[in-house]
Specification:
The longest helix is centred in the middle third of the chain and has 23 residues. This protein has four helices and no strands. It is mostly helical and about 90 residues long. The protein has two domains: about 35 residues; about 55 residues. About 80% of the residues lie in helices and about 0% in strands. It is elongated, with a radius of gyration of 21 Å.
């Protein structure tokens, strides 16, 4: 469904506001170069593996395996979130 003239004008205004507020972000978004870094991918994979290990540990009632899975999930989360620090204004 195509945008109406009013919606298109609002979108153009939002783009102009973004370019005025944060030109670096606007440039990165327009070029399509916003990607996760390798650390973020590794972190996501560690989170998934940790979740699987945690579920395995709970289902087999092995505390050591469950704790290991939890630690893997924590390390993966740290890597994932550590690659994109939050900026508070």
């Amino acid at each position: 469904m195509p945008l109406s003239d009013r919606e298109r004008k609002q979108l153009e205004e939002l783009e102009a506001d973004l370019a005025a507020d944060d030109p670096q972000l606007a440039q990165r978004l327009s070029s399509g170069s916003v990607r996760l870094r390798a650390k973020a991918y590794l972190g996501l994979v560690l989170c998934l593996i940790g979740l699987i290990v945690l579920i395995t540990g709970v289902s087999t009632q092995l505390v050591v395996v469950g704790v290991g899975g939890f630690l893997l999930m924590g390390a993966g989360t740290y890597l994932t979130l550590g690659t994109h620090p939050l900026r508070l204004r």
